[in-house]
C-alpha cells in the first residue's frame, strides 16, 4: 500500500492508546487549544481541562499556549477574563500535582471587535509577539489583508489559524501564497491530516504540507472527542515525515514561552 493510500484509508478503530505515548513531544509546545475552562466552546470545567491536559501530556506535550476564542457577540473574552481562567486552572493543576505550564493568549476572529482591539492595541498576544487570527468558515473576511497589516504595524506577527479549513480557499490555492507573502504565518490543525473535518480539508492540508506552507502546528483541542482523534492520528500517521517540507517554528515559540516562564518565576521570587 502506498503512503497516499495509507493516509486516505479508514481511521483505526479500538486502537491501543498507549502506542501514542510521547508521539507529539517533538512539537515541544501546543500553541493552539481551548483548554481554559468555562470561557468558550472548549473545556467546560477545571476537571475537564485536567483530563484533556493529561491526555496531551501522554502524547508528550507539557507547555500550552491557551487560545480561547475572542468573537464579538458570542465569546467576548478579554485579557482579564482569559487571565482569570488561566489562574483558576493553574491553581487547580497545582493542587493536582500536575506540572503543565500555561500561557494565556487568544484566537481572534476577524470582526468589528478585533478592529476595536487593534485600535486600542489590546490584543491577546502569544510569546514572541505572535497574534493568532481566524475567519468564519462560511465566508472569507474581506478585511484579512488589512488585519494582517494592522497587526504588523503594532509590532506583532500574525498567524492564521487552520487555513486548510476555509472551504472557500480550497479551489484558490494561490491565495495561501498571497497570505504568506503578506507576512502572515500559517498554522496547521493536527486533526486536519486525518478525515476528521472531511476529505477536502485533509487533501488541502496535505497539499499545503507538501508545498512547505505551514509555520506552526497546534491541536485546536476542544473536548475529549478531539483528544481521542488526536491519539489515533498520533498512532497512525507519520506526522514528523509529513512536516518535513515545512519550516515549523514551534520550537521557537517554546523558547519564548520558557523565557516568559523564567521571568515570571523570577518576579514571583
Biggest sheet, open or closed, and with what strands and sense?
6 strands, parallel
Our estimate of the beta-strand percent is: 5-15%
Class by helix and strand content?
alpha/beta
Order of helices and strands: HHEEHEEHEHEHEHEHHH
Observed structural traits:
269 residues; alpha/beta; 6-stranded parallel β-sheet; two-stranded parallel ribbon; 10 helices; 8 strands; disordered N terminus
Describe what this molecule looks like in 3D.
This protein has 269 residues and is an alpha/beta fold. Helices cover 41% and strands 12% of the residues. The chain is built from ten helices and eight strands. It has helices at 3-7, 46-58, 79-95, 112-119, 144-153, 174-181, 199-210, 224-236, 239-242, 250-268; strands at residues 63-66, 69-70, 101-104, 107-109, 130-134, 157-161, 185-189, 216-218. A six-stranded parallel sheet has the order 2-4-5-6-7-8. The termini are far apart.
Amino acid at each position: 500500500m502506498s503512503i497516499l493510500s495509507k493516509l486516505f484509508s479508514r481511521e483505526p478503530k479500538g486502537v491501543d492508546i498507549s502506542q501514542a505515548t510521547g508521539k507529539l513531544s517533538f512539537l515541544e509546545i501546543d500553541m493552539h487549544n481551548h483548554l481554559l475552562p468555562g470561557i468558550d466552546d472548549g473545556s467546560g470545567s477545571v476537571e475537564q481541562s485536567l483530563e484533556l491536559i493529561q491526555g496531551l501530556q501522554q502524547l508528550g506535550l507539557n507547555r500550552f499556549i491557551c487560545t480561547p476564542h475572542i468573537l464579538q457577540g458570542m465569546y467576548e473574552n478579554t485579557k482579564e477574563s482569559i487571565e482569570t481562567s488561566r489562574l483558576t486552572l493553574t491553581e487547580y493543576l497545582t493542587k493536582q500535582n500536575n506540572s503543565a505550564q500555561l500561557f494565556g493568549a487568544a484566537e481572534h476572529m476577524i470582526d468589528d471587535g478585533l478592529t476595536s482591539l487593534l485600535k486600542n492595541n489590546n490584543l491577546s498576544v502569544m510569546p514572541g509577539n505572535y497574534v493568532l487570527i481566524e475567519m468564519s468558515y462560511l465566508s472569507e473576511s474581506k478585511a484579512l489583508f488589512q488585519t494582517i497589516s494592522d497587526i504588523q504595524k503594532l509590532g506583532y506577527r500574525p498567524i492564521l489559524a487552520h487555513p486548510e479549513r476555509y472551504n472557500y480557499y480550497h479551489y484558490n490555492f494561490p491565495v495561501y501564497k498571497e497570505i504568506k507573502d503578506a507576512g502572515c504565518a500559517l498554522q496547521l490543525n493536527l486533526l486536519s491530516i486525518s478525515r476528521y473535518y472531511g476529505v477536502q480539508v485533509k487533501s488541502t492540508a496535505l497539499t499545503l504540507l507538501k508545498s512547505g506552507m505551514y509555520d506552526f502546528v497546534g491541536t485546536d483541542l476542544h473536548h475529549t472527542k478531539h483528544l481521542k482523534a488526536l491519539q489515533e492520528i498520533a498512532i497512525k500517521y507519520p506526522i514528523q515525515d509529513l512536516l518535513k517540507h515545512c519550516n515549523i517554528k514551534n520550537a521557537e515559540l517554546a523558547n519564548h514561552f520558557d523565557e516568559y516562564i523564567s521571568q515570571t518565576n523570577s518576579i514571583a521570587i
